[in-house]
Amino acid sequence: MSNDGLGSNPQAGGFSLSAIAVGVSGVAGEEAPETGGDSAIAWEALGGLTDGQIITFTTDGTYDFGTKPNDPKPLLVWNADDGISAPNAVLGRKSVWDGTFYGEVSSTIVAPEVSQSVRLDHAINTGAILAQVEFNSAPNLYVHRRQYDDFEIDTAIVIRTRYQNLVGTLNIGDTVTGQTSGATGIIREFLDDKILYEYSGGNINTTMYDAVIDNRIRFDPYEVMTTPSATMDNNEGQGMLTDFNNKHYRMWGPTGAQNDTYLGQDTAGSFLSPKVAEENTSIDGAFYPNDWDNNLLQKPYTWITDEMAYQDNSSANSNDGILWWWEDGVKAWEAKRFNFRNEEALRDQPYTRVYQRQVSNGARPNSYTYMASLYVDDSWCRVVVSDLPDLNLSNETTDTYTVIPLPPTAWGSNEISVVAQGNVAGKYWFIIDATGSEVIKGQFV
User: What is the share, in percent, of the chain residues with pLDDT greater than 70?
Assistant: First the structure.
């Protein structure tokens, strides 16, 4: 696996997103200055290697840190201790969210590095957790987040039929019977033209997870369906929707655009169909896990680190765009390239918005995703620290492994300054340039 510097693998830890505290040697109560390295690559932390202190890396020209596009500071830095009102305006360039914020503050499940989380129940809200982040058509994007799924995808599915020509009244708890299929289900909820069904009761649940699709009991498309007090026609094109329409990440063009790409994820043994899909612009079709280098399955009930890197096509229909994804340091694929835009109207503009986890068609009640932190930048340049001497892992690991982005405050070809997030003493550090390549690494010792 290539060492492109875009991977990470924390099972615990993260970044505290503290404010900047510049240390001055000799002031009472401050940590002693710490330094390391040599003339080729040196680091200095005047206030020590503790949370919020400035760490500066310098080189005598042996290495070239390159130029960081747009701004030294990352685009957005947020963690749950910042609450829901705004991102951290000291460490990142954004001081407000770019859209409606979805989620609530919770102390039910909390990552080790924060005192609270933000959570969203996908059964109640079909929007994306947190808020959209606009990156203004920048050709590159990097996203780092800490996430916890308090559910399993294959059992959190929504069971739905749409209806039309309703005569009578629907009631929660009534049994719906398909007059042709003989399928039965219990109404859990109904809204607009949709019925959502309970996960027990009715014969549709007896074969829900049968590996052979033809063995599953399902409502037929367009058949007459009845309850004790209503008659209607089934208007669900596939008869019955059993789905978890998971957008692990999603990017869109400008408002009104028709080009978007989303990444789906699955669990072992599920009948769902995860994929990467460039909607309306794909040249070679959806990209399914059997073609991935590593099928990164959902890891429920644990805090994970998720990373995504995007690079726009060089031109419309060039099919050379990059989308990479890591789960706890393991990269899903390397060589695959994508076509994010073409020459058609409303499908010809680069992406401008990125969204976090979303389940479009609903889910089983109490299907919560928790978020502890989010770091977004419109450049691949960054400095990260880790507990292990390598970033990219070839396969899943149970080792405790933390990776933390350190928000830059200055970036030049021979000098970089970053803000320590937590105590970084003893950790390995990595400098990544604008191409995503690892320039140099070392250790704070």
Answer: 89
Residue 376 has phi, psi (to 5 degrees) of -130, 135
Domain 158-243 annotated CATH 3.30.1340: no
Burial 309-327, CB ≥16 within 10 A → b, else e: bbbbbeebebbebbbbbbb
Using DSSP bridges, classify how beta strands 415-419 and 54-58 pair: parallel, antiparallel or unpaired. Answer: antiparallel
Quote the pLDDT of residue 388. 83
Query: Per CATH, which fold does 76-154+245-374 belong to?
Result: Jelly Rolls (2.60.120)
Angle (nearest 5°) at CA 269 between 264 and 270: 45
CB burial class (10 A; 0-12, 13-18, 19+) of residue 96? exposed
According to DSSP, the β-strands at 34-37 and 42-45 are antiparallel
Q: Give Cα 72 distance to the centre of its chain.
A: 23
Element (H, E) at 216: none
Cβ neighbours of residue 433 closer than 8 Å, sequence gap 6 or more: 64, 65, 66, 380, 381, 439
pTM of the predicted model as reported, rounded to 2 decimal places: 0.86
DSSP state of 40: S
Residue 285 burial class via C-beta count within 10 angstroms: exposed 0-12, middle 13-18, buried 19 and up: exposed
pLDDT surpassing 60 at residue 441 = yes
Where are the chain's structural domains? 34-68+406-443, 76-154+245-374, 158-243
CA distance 329 to 379: 19
Q: Which of 308, 309, 318 shows the shortest CA–CA distance to 340?
A: 318
pLDDT digits (tens, 9 = 90+) for 339-362: 999 999 999 999 999 999 999 888
- Residue 98's nearest CA partner among 121, 116, 76 is 76
Measured in Å, how far apart are the chain's first and last C-alpha atoms?
Answer: 28
Q: Please enumerate in sequence order all residues whose Cβ is within 8 A of that of 361, keeping only pairs 6 or more positions apart, or say none.
A: 126, 158, 160, 241, 243, 245
